[in-house]
Amino acid sequence: MENFDASLSPYFRALLGPRDTRVKGWFLLDNYIPTFICTAIYLLVVWLGPKYMRTRQPFSCRGILVVYNLGLTLLSLFMFYEDSAPASVPLGSQESTEDSALKLQSRDLSAPWPAHCSWLPGNVPSSLHLHTQLVTGVWENNYNFFCQGTRSAGEADMKIVEVLWWYYFSKLIEFMDTFFFILRKNNHQITVLHVYHHATMLNIWWFVMNWVPCGHSYFGATLNSFIHVLMYSYYGLSSIPSMRPYLWWKKYITQGQLLQFVLTIIQTSCGVIWPCTFPLGWLYFQIGYMISLIALFTNFYIQTYNKKSASRRKERLREHQNGSVAAVNGHTTSFSSLENNVKLRKQRKD
Hints:
Layout: H1 2-16, H2 33-53, H3 62-84, H4 94-106, H5 127-130, H6 134-140, H7 155-173, H8 175-183, H9 192-211, H10 218-238, H11 250-273, H12 280-349
Helix pairs in contact: 2-8, 2-9, 3-6, 3-7, 3-10, 7-9, 10-11, 11-12
């Protein structure tokens, strides 16, 4: 496996340039093979799982689903806040240019995990602490909305890199979405869109983390984390039967996802129009990927909501027409029975 990965590295370098050394040695990032194998296993389970479950009873998974969706809701919430909140040093100050460079030199960039919370086993960062940083890191460090390079904010960049590693890792956790569908025999939810989105995101973010792990990469992850707060809270609540009648916002989550893709295209296009040190090739790729998601999600929205509402309108129209006919028939029947009664009375008189 190592030889195979080593044979891929020259092609990656030729196509994408040198890797970002700040993530060297981080869990799952040194070699592409683990990410590729995880994706291959995921696709194999998608193919074989429904066949295996075909003759078996579905699993409820209710308790696990509540915990799983709650966990991903909290993870997404903390990532969103962490990605957009500021650090203590404003960009452009003397501290951010000189002292932060010294801090970066003193950091252990070879640590196998993003550096946070040394009290955890293996120096694994606390997701709660990390998630208090995508919004804060961007906001307080005056990240430029129009274009932000990957090495222009010193220590603040490392803060974003650490949070985005968790974002990458969360894409691996989200494979469980599909596995739960299979176990519960909800195969209608395993669509081309679902599999495409899950399988590609993990792989794309492996490359992002190795070449552009901060700077302009923050925006899409921040929006997606916010959308996932809404989405996983919905799924968590929907796994509780008594809550289902009160859940009304599923349609608006899909609308929010579409809005997220449009906003990401706009923000990415700003980096193309007003370029900085962020590589243009990545911006073009992101625009193309967002367009593919817009096409797939729009088709899903039309199939799920517009066609359903149209069929409901037709059903109501039929019910209304049938009701009218029934009323007419009822009136006619009553009138006929009245005539018969009159005839019977006449016969009695005779």
